[in-house]
Amino acid sequence: MKRLLSLLLGIAAICVLLAFSANKLQSTSGDSSAKVLNLYNWGDYIDPALITKFQKETGYHVNVETFDSNEAMFTKIKQGGTSYDLTVPSDYMIEKMRAAHLLKPLDKSRLTGFANLDARFTNQSFDPHNRYSVPYFWGTLGIIYNDQSIKPEEVQHWNDLWQPKFKNKIMLIDSTRDVLGFSLVSMNQSMNTTNPAILKAAQAKLNRLSPNVKAVVADEIKMYMTENEAPLAVDWSGEASEMIANNPHLHYVVPTEGSNLWFDNLVIPKTAKHYKAIYAFLNFMLKPENAAQNAEYIGYATPNKKAKALLPKSIRNDKQFYPSDRTIANLQVYSDLSPHTIGLYNDLYLEFKMNHH
Amino acid sequence: MKSKTNNLFYFIPYGLWLLLFVMAPVALIVYHSFLNLNQHFTLDNYITYFKSGTYLMMTLNSLWYALLITVATLLISYPTAYLLSNLKHKQLWLLLIILPTWINLLLKAYAFIGIFSQSGVANQFLTFIGIGPQQLLFTNFSFIFVATYIQIPFMILPIFNSIEDLNQSYINASHDLGATSWQTFRKVIWPMTLPGVKAGVQSVFIPSLSLFMLTRLIGGNKVITLGTAIEEHFLITMNWGMGSTIGVVLIVAMVVIMIFTGESKTRGGVPK
């Protein structure tokens, strides 16, 4: 009986401890006191030096928490219990969050420096007139090749990937919309197609690409390409810039006929509390010198026109990450499709992955 | 009377555990599997599963690879366990086999990427002996190899224990009565260690059914199992209903396997 009592006491003690630490954890996931800003960002997606600078300039303390997928971020904000002031969803997710009433509209009168942004990257379909979001970074989907075995002129267009000589040489990013998307573009179709027949045709075309596909992988693609495991890959510009930094033989091409144009924008979720700090931060990040410093650190393309002008020439004129106007005109932004259509995309994509042996 | 309440008290921690971490999650999965994207009650998920060739193919694929992994693991583990039980410092050797299970699965997978890649150790060796570099990653071989490597300790342990329990006098008796080594193995050792083999098969086959990380990291998504589909439904399409349906099918498959490999009490078996 005595042993049992101590056992029960032990369990009770553990419960108290758990409750205490849960409470503690919850209070740290978003401090709600006055002079703070709770930033919910992608991992390693802001120059830490800028945070220090912001804290020094304004006196606000910045709490950064990170997420690794739009969906995870969405779920966490939707469930509540957090007090994030700013977060950084991608284009289609902004549309989805808006529809779910998870965003607070921006008060444009409190924003300074919005005019610094390139008009080509504002007023996008996912957020007309930027009522909810301030562009943070943008990028593309494209082809990465290794100049040791591939000549630049061999891979300028999506259709080039289907050449029989690239048998077992291509790595694809494991992402439903991107993989089906480039197949759609290669057929001159919209990347936001909802027509099942066209989608099936895009999948059938992908199945013909199967012999060339070496693997369908996720983040590891960077490591594989850097280590010359494959000479060709389809991945996002941000990932490409990291690979190129580690292996100078790699190059990135955005096919002129079109590709995906993606955005990560700053938004104010409904959990926000510190409006003064929020606008101080947004204005801070809109300043050309800060945006330029951030772009140089992260390696993604900045939507801030004045910041771009401050970047070193080698970055500013790099056609890989700042493609020509003609190419940009052909880029397409993903829209938030209905769950039914996303289901269809996903089923077709799974089938494609099953068919490739 | 007192001992009865005592027993009830003892059951509380286990009962709570069972309720919170076994029954509640399973009940939730079953519940979700009957919901469609609009959170309405429906049987559609199951109809989709059994009508679409894709999911059935995927199920067969999962079963096939799980079977290959289990057979490969068994072929390596049984002789190893047998050898171990005859060694002098068997506990030490056993510890060395268990040791890798202390390392995170993801780390082990990444280590194998390094070994199997184009410039990896394996290919350096192949080049050294004159065969030249081969494509090792993203092949069925490498997937089964790594999965087998990871599962081996879980197969060796139960087999080792059942061989340890084996009474040496039965083997001696078998030899004394004129049985050959092969006959002794087939008629005496194998039936008596079968419970260990069954336990090992259970603990290897069932997790192998839903491997999903290795299929991408090592298999390059050339091997697609039900685990991959569940991951996609929960994380990308956010169709938790369909994901749960696949989960329920997996749970049912596991129960079936447990029944098949479980010990049958009616047959009595070999006396210890």
Name its key features.
heterodimer, A: 357 residues, alpha/beta, D-Maltodextrin-Binding Protein, domain 2, 2 domains, seven-stranded mixed sheet, three-stranded parallel sheet, 14 helices, 10 strands, globular, B: 272 residues, mainly alpha, MetI-like fold, 12 helices, 0% strand, disordered C terminus
Describe this protein's structure.
Chain B: Belongs to the binding-protein-dependent transport system permease family. CysTW subfamily. Chain B: Its main location: membrane. Chain B: Keywords: Cell membrane, Membrane, Transmembrane, Transmembrane helix, Transport. Chain B: The chain crosses the membrane at residues 12-34, 63-85, 92-116, 136-160, 238-260. Chain B: InterPro entries: MetI-like, MetI-like_sf. The complex is a heterodimer of chains A (357) and B (272). Chain A has 357 residues and is of the alpha/beta class. Chain A has two domains: 30-138 and 263-316, D-Maltodextrin-Binding Protein, domain 2; 139-261 and 324-355, D-Maltodextrin-Binding Protein, domain 2 (3-Layer(aba) Sandwich). Helices cover 43% and strands 17% of the residues of chain A. In chain A, the strands form two sheets. In chain A, strands 4, 5, 6, 7, 8, 9 and 10 form a seven-stranded mixed sheet that branches. In chain A, helix 5 (176-186) crosses helix 6 (196-209), helix 5 crosses helix 14 (339-355) and helix 6 runs parallel beside helix 14. Chain A starts with a helix and ends with a helix. The relative contact order of chain A is 0.17. The mean pLDDT of chain A is 91. Chain B contains twelve helices and no strands. Chain B is mainly α. The relative contact order of chain B is 0.13. In chain B, helix 3 packs across helix 7 (140-165). The two termini of chain B are 35 Å apart. Chain B is globular. The A-B interface holds A 1, 4, 7-8, 11, 69, 71-72, 168, 171, 174, 176, 214-218, 220, 223-224, 227-229, 339-340, 342-343, 346-347, 350-351, 353-354, 356-357 and B 6, 9-10, 12-13, 37, 52, 54, 57-58, 61, 113, 117-119, 135, 137-138, 216-217, 220-222, 224, 228-229, 232-233, 235-239, 242.
